[in-house]
Structures are given as C-alpha cells and as structure tokens.
Amino acid sequence: MTQDLRTGSPQPDSSPAPIEASTGAAGRSGSVMNRVLGSLSAAARLEVFLIIILAFLVWWGAQLSPFFLTGSNFGFSIQAVMEISIMALAMTPIIITGEIDLSVESMVGLSSCVLGWLWMEGVPLQLGIPIVLLVGLLGGLFNGFVVTRWALPSLVVTLGTLALFRGLAHVVLGSTVVTNFPAEFRDFGFSYVPGTNIPWTLLAFLILAAVCCAVIHLTWIGRQVFAVGKNKDAARYSGVRVGTLKLALFAVSGLVAAFAGVILTSRTSTANPDNGLNMTLAVVTIAVLGGVDINGGKGTIPGVILAVFILATLKSALTQAGISTDYQNVAVGLLLIVSVITPLLARQFRILADRIRLGRWRHRLRRGRPARDPAAGEVVR
Amino acid sequence: MTDSMTIDAIESAGAASVPPPVALAGVSKRFGATQALLDVSLALLPGEIHALVGENGAGKSTVVKVLAGIHQPDSGAVVLDGKTVTLHGPAHARSLGIAVVHQEPRLFPDLTVAENVFIGHVPSGRLGSVNWREMRRSADRIFESLSVHIDSSAVVRGLSMADQQLIEIAKALSIDARVLVLDEPTASLSAHEVVRLFEIIRQTRDRGVAVLFVSHRLEEVFELCGRATVLRDGRHVITAPTSELTAADLVRHMVGRSVSLFPRTTAHIGDVLLEVRGLTRVGAFRDISFSVRAGEIVGLAGLVGAGRTEVARVLFGLDRADAGEVLLDGKRVTFKTPSGALEAGIAYVPEDRHLDGLVGGFSIAQNVTLPIIPRLFPRFFIRGGRERAITEDFVERLRIRSTGVNELIEALSGGNQQKVVIAKWLATNPRVLILDEPTRGVDIGAKVEVHRIISELAASGLGIVLISSELPEVLAMSDRIIVLHEGRMSAEIPRAEASEERVMFAATGQMAEETSSGA
Questions:
Q1: CATH of region B45-71+88-255
Q2: Which residue range is the domain that position A83 belongs to?
Q3: What integer best gives the mean pLDDT of chain B?
C-alpha cells in the first residue's frame, strides 16, 4: 500500500494530477504510469529526505566529538527519547484520523505517581504496573468518550485532561517524591541488553513499532483510520464506526502513555508529579516530522521511526555542541514548526509552478471557447 | 434559439423607452459537465413582480447567483439600465442596487436586528465610530415602512424564520435597491406569514422596484406576479404575462420533454422487503408510508427540500425517526448507525458522491472494499490479491473505465466515480438499495449505463428506492412513484398512470387532494 505522502522536498513535479487533468485521454496510459511512479517516489521521497537529514546530523555530531559515534552514546541518546517515541507511535493514528491527544504528558506524570504511591503503600510492582496501565487505559477512554460522545474537538478536551491528569498526579503523591524503587525495576529503564548498547526500552519501542506498523499499514483497522482521516463522512456512510474507532485509539494512547510513565519512572528511578512535563510537544513533533499530516489522512510508521532517530541524534549533537537544554527546547519547537510548514510551502510552490505552466494558456483557452457548446446543448435532450 | 430577447432587442428597447433596470442578455454558465444556463435572456421592468419558475436544476438558482454577483457568466452579460456591467462580487452587485434575498436567511445570529440590516454599510459617526442610535433609527424606519413590528435592538438568534426573512428583505431595502431578487422566500414560511410577506413585496413593487420572485409554487406565481419566465434545463422557454397562462401551461413548459433514454426491463416483482409506516421526523417529513418489493423500483419524487433525502437518511441509520416504524422482511428494525443498516442489508448511495460517497486519495479498490473490509478479512490483515479480485469483478460488471483498480479515485470521470460508489454499495450485498440522485453530474452516456445497472439490479431481486429530481428518470425507471410535497406524501402513482404533469402537480402541491384521493 502506497500512501500519498506529504513530501518534505519542494520539487515542482511531485503533484502531477493537475497537469494530467488537462492532457485528457490522449496521454492517459502514460500519465497513469507517471502517477504510479509518482506516488511510489512520493512515498519513498519523504523517507529518503528523512534519511538524508539523519545522515547529515550524524556527520555533524561526529565532527563535534569523537565520543559521538560510540555505541554508548547511541544507547544513551536513544534511551533519553524512548518515552516520547513510544507515545508518538500511539499518537500517529490519532493524528491521522484528524484528532490529537495533548494529555499524554500528564498521563506520564499521573501513572508515575500512582506507581510510586502504590509502591509506597507496599503493593508489589508485579501488581502495581498492571494497575497503572489500567489507569492509563481508563484515562484514555475518558478522553475518547468525551470527544466522541459529544463530538467535541479533541484539542480542547485533551487540553482539559492535560490539566486534569497533572492535577490528579499532584493529588496522588502530594509533595512526596518516591525514589526507593528496587534495582530490578530500575534496570528495565536504565540498562542495556547484555553485551550490546541496545537499551531494553529501545527493544520495547521496536516491538511496539512493528505491531503499530502492521496494524496501521496492513490491516483493515488501519484502512479505516486513513478513511476517517481523509473523509470522515464517507467513512461513516461506509459503515465505519467512527466513534468506536476513535475511542479505541484514545484508549490505546492513554495506555501507552501510562507505559511511558512506567519507563520514565524506571529510568529516572523517581516518581514525581512533574514527570513527563513538556513531553507532548516532542511527541507531536516526532509524528509531524515523520510525515504525519497534522490535518489528518496521511502518515506512515516508518517515517515516525526515522523521526525518532533524527530527534535523538539532534539532541545528542546539540549536547555535544554544548548547547543547553533550554536552547534544545527552542530547537525542538522550531523543528515542529518547520516540519508543519515545509509540506505546505512545498505544495504552494508546486501550485505556483503549475499555475505558471498551465494557468495562463488554460485561462485563454476558456475565454476563446465558443460560448455555445453544441454537444452539451443538444445531447441532453 | 428559443429566446425572444437578445442583446440587440434589449438595447433597441432601451433606445425606444426607458431601458429595464436590470436584464440578462444571452447568459451562459457551465459547471464542469453541467450546462447550468444556456443563452438565457431576461429583462425585469420597474414596478413589476416577475416570476422565475422551473424544475429542480432548471437554472433558477444560477440566475439568482449571476444577478447577485456570485457567479460570473461564461458568455453573455448582465445589463443595468442598458449598460453592460461585470459584477465582481456580491458587494459590487449590492452597490449597484441589486439586492438578493437567498432561500435560507443568512444572518449573523448573535448580532442585533439593526446590526444585521446594516452589516456592510454601518452608519458611522465622527472618527469612524459606529453611530448606534442612527443605525437603530434607520432600521426602525425601514420596518415601519414595511409595517412590521420587529425590535431592531433584539438579537437575531431565536427569531422566527419569517422574521429573519423579513430582516433579509429590510437589509435588501436598506441599500435603496432598485432590483430585489427573492429566491424561494416562502419555502420556510407558514401560510399566515406568506400573506404578510406578499403584502411587503407588493409595497416594494409599488415603489418602483423591479422584483424577481423565484418559486416553484405555482399558486404563488399566479397570486403575486405580473409576468412569468420558465426555465428548463438551463434554457429560457417562455416569458409571458401570468394572465395569459394557466397552471397547466406552466407545468407543461417546465417539464415539456418526451425523450426516453432509459432501458428498463421489467422485473419479476416478489415479496415486500421494506415497509415504512407513518415515518415522521420533526422538521423534515411527516407520516410517510410505503413499501418496496423485491425486484421493484420505487421512485421518490419531489422538489428540493420536500424531504426525500431526509427519509433515506432515516432508513440508513444516519438520523433517527421521531415516530413510525420501518419493517425489513416484516420485522421491525431501527438503526443507530449506517453500519447497522448495512448489516441488515440496506445500502444508501448518497446524494453527494464527493462529500459522502468516496474517500479522496484512496484507490478504486480501497473505496469499493471500504464497507466490507472487516467482513472480508476477519483476521484483520488485508490481502491485496483478494481485494483486487473483488474490485475487478465489479469493475467488469459495472463497466467502470479505468487503467486498473489501483488507480486513484480522483482520476476517474464523474460517471465512473458514480459507478464506483454504486459498486461499493453492491459489494455489501444489500437487499434494499436506496439511490439518491444517482445520475447527478454524470454525462449522458454514463447516465444510460447507470440506468442499465439499476434496472439489472432490480431484475436480480433487489428492492430499489430511487430518489431523483429528474422527472424523466423517475418516470422511466420506477414501477411506482411516491411524490413528496413539503415533507408529506402528496401522491402515490403506479407506473401505468404516471406522467410528468401528474408528478409535477403533486410535487408542487397543486392537486394534492385530488391525487391522494385517487391513489
């Protein structure tokens, strides 16, 4: 399945449709060939573009420090973005359906606090973690229920739960900070697959990414997700249970955010109401940078995976360059805006190019056409 | 050339006496494959109420929109006082004295009555500030002159449809309009409100304003208008004083066609599949009862807004009924969602294929299988080969012309897109198929194809409900015709007794009593 992707590279020939419309039946077979190639290359081009950016960042990082290209730096840098990356996987189908879940970062905080509180109360982690995941699922269901039941914009609803979940996190743990987690628990977030530089969390991410990729790109559930994003009404008329689908996606997002909360708690060995603060920005940035259309209908999981590596590399390179975390946030914010704007600019550029090529003579053609078109008039009756 | 008036005629008339304040001279307008207007000429005289009548799709609204400056004619021109002008947009048309009241009031619900009347030309005081008192006083003056009582400082939200319509008219008059265009202003008014509106229209006429009154209610035309112009299929048919016309004449001019293009093989008619009893949805339709048998095509005729699509939406689970029941195979059913209706075997080909029928950016195969993929692949994973095979089967059966089932839907012509929509619903293997305007916007060749498909489907034992605004289509295809008029059934006509005149009369509410007692 080839998805028509937004491309990051502003090349005028990537939107062949308007040109072909005017060439008509004569150039039909050729034009279709072009279109097939075009959509294949459009799909490939975004990923290629992302790989080029990644390669550039790796090269740049290597210039900055000999330490940059070491395995330990890889493990360390990638581990730092695993929570947001896992959440980006669940965010992707939500954005494809045209919705958004801003509350994920607060769910990270809430789940972390609930885990810490349960541990403090003497509940073993084998029981505590499933409870925390359940809390995430319920939080996600709440988001999805409010959004679908009253047809409210998810932007506003999840902005509300962004505050709500964070508030609950503070209620649960108060000013306490729980840090006395057992070493086995810390190992999951903090250590590597023995003998390698691959963090356990990266393994978890890759497994989730594979599942997510299969569901979105190979099953009918994914097909329905894209259908809803491209044309919600047509999807509903076609029997797609739009509400149920969205409810499920929000529930998964809540569940995954709670899982990310567990990972973060494990990696930092800290349950703190402020855990996960400002993560939503990075989650959305990864999705959008990976080619997910913020207006819905388009996106791929491979693109999102590449975006994860780009973000990790960028952050590592900025650290190597001695740029402080504050400025790194500036960079992430800029990256988000640039990745939203780039496809828009590319499209504007293509439209402009098409208009220059076609617009004028087509306009002249229309004006020059005889006012009375006998075929249209006579055949009808 | 059916027109009696051309640019020359208008100009020479202008030379002889006072030129008409506004006229259309040989206006043509085309939207894609549809010729909305072809060489239409029309002159409005000061102090006359001129009726513009025609079937759905005859081009009435296009005339209104050309006069309002919303559409620019492809050829021909708008002539004001004998001078050809180009209307650049609604504001420009208004500034030239052409006031248009659209079918649905388009007011700002949260602004006051006075603000709505003067929106766009607010009386300003010193430093450009709004002169609120002057605005209210002027609004009151206009309402006074219309002898209506509307509080000009009230907020529009919550006012009745009739009051909103009157505010639209006040808005039109606030610019000292010389031409007033009313597009079906009575569509949402009660009988009492219509009387009041007519009084105001007459007062306006008596002030020398040229009024164009668009309607398909013939009794209103005869009651109110001095002259009438009939459009049919985008062409001017006749302009004559209403005193020289009868209702029958008008109807004949509106439909006057005889060509039957549609192959219809009569099918074996079986048992009742779908039965509707006393179905009512408040504000849309009331007390609709009919049945559809296997192999039968039931036509649902009526003018735009008569409630045909609304009935279909309830049957398909998109809306809920307030009263009445739907029986499928004799069992009572209610659907909360289209997916429920699809599972029960009811499919609905929606009116607007771009908005509701197709998913843009999906291929033919992806569109065709969308309603059935969960059933087709119970193990979740889509198998491309199977998906293509199923689609190719429909592509062949419906003769969809494409370069392959992976072609994007946007690349197809309108007619082929419509066939994909039909294929998509056939793939659900329905027992009752509701088709809403299945041939709108498709070319004539594809139209015949679609009719062939519908006919074959009926022959294969499907029950079909055909909603269409094209009378010849309904007449040629249907075994029975249900006519709706303003949300009620005004006639049920068997194939043998159906004629364009009879359906049109019922659809315009002309002979509702006679036909319903006859049926």
A1: 3.40.50.300
A2: 36-344
A3: 83
Residue contact A35–B408, C-beta within 8 A: yes
Q: Which of B28, B373, B410 sits opposite A223 (nearest CB)?
A: B373
Long-range contacts of A145-154, Cβ-Cβ distance < 8 Å, separation of 24 or more: A145/A247, A147/A99, A147/A246, A147/A250, A148/A242, A148/A243, A148/A244, A148/A246, A148/A247, A149/A243, A154/A94, A154/A99, A154/A100, A154/A101, A154/A250
A150 touches chain B (CB under 8 A): no
* Mean pLDDT, residues A265-276: 92
Q: Kindly list the residues from chain A whose CB atom is less than 8 angstroms away from the CB atom of residue B33.
A: 376
Chain A residues closer than 8 Å to B362 by CB:
226-227, 230
Cβ B250 vs Cβ B239: under 8 Å: no
Q: Cβ A227–B357 below 8 Å, yes or no?
A: no
User: How confident is residue A377, by pLDDT bands cut at 50, 70 and 90?
Assistant: very low
Q: Closest partner residue to A381 among B259, B356, B359, by Cβ?
A: B259
B361 with A220: Cβ contact below 8 A: no
Most confident of A362-366, B408-412, B469-473: B408-412
A234–B35 C-beta distance less than 8 A: no
Asked if A220 reaches chain B (Cβ–Cβ under 8 Å), the answer is yes
Nearest Cα neighbor of B46 from B200, B211, B201 is: B211
Indicate the residue of A35, A297, A371 with minimum beta-carbon distance to B361.
A297
Q: ipTM surpassing 0.90, yes or no?
A: no
Give residue B5's pLDDT. 43
Test A36 with B406 for CB contact under 8 angstroms. yes
Give chain A's domain count. 1
Q: Residue A316 is encoded by which pair of tokens?
A: 């590592």
Predicted model pTM: 0.70
The set of residues, in sequence order, having a beta carbon less than 8 Å from that of A204 and lying 6+ positions away, is: A82, A86, A263
Looking at residues B437-453, what average pLDDT do you find?
Answer: 77
**More confident position, B272 or A40:** B272
DSSP one-letter string for B81-140 = TTEEE---SHHHHHHTTEEEE-SS----TTSBHHHHHTTTS--B-GGG-B-HHHHHHHHH
Tell me the nearest-neighbour CA distance from A215 into chain B, angstroms: 8
Pick the CATH number of B272-360+430-518 from 3.40.50.300, 3.40.50.920, 3.40.190.10, 1.20.1250.20: 3.40.50.300
Is there a domain that residue A44 lies in?
yes
| Every domain range in chain B assigned CATH 3.40.50.300 | 45-71+88-255, 272-360+430-518
